[in-house]
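Lecture 7, part 2: worked example. A protein chain together with zinc ion.
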Amino acid sequence: MAMTCDICDRIGERLRADHDEGEELPPEARKLVLRDEQPYSTDILQCPSCGAWFTSEYRCDNDIYSPIHVSELVRISADKARETIEWRKNRDREDRREYLRRLRKKLGHGVGELSEEEARVVDHLVRRSGHGGQNLPDLEKFCGLAPAAMGEVLARLESRKIIERVVSMPAAPRPEDDPRNFTMLYLNRRA
Ligand SMILES: [Zn+2]
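Predicted complex, written out as structure tokens:
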């Protein structure tokens, strides 16, 4: 079955760019859509034109004698992509349950049940917990929630002390600075 695709034919089965050698991924690589973000590991991307799946990894080591800065895209099967995404979702759900157990112990009272949307937000923050928090626009994007819906979800989670919000505007904000970009959401760091 010979398939051609304007976007991912250029990527092939595997494409590696060694940035220390001045190499860059081709512009087509930026057109792939992020489907599953994994801090410190492989992201999963999909070609918006033909639906093909890829893992994407950026390896970085700032050793002064042998620095490594390499981006790599690897084509994977649709089954493998779906399996990996499902596996990570289950792991996040387990990590969320563990986090809520710890939080209940700290707070000394229940935090109640999470709605489906609330769980989506907490799962995302759990996945990023070793990586700091998540800024508001990206949180909306990754959780698939519109700003109004997200506003309500965050308010409910904050009032139950499940998450925390930190807004840190620059000392001299420019008129075009959107406070949303400086709004970070975290799990309750006392848990
Ligand atoms: Zn494609």
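Residues 5, 7-8, 47, 49-50, 52 surround zinc ion (CB under 6 Å). DSSP finds four helices and eight strands in the chain. Keep this in mind for problem set question 3.
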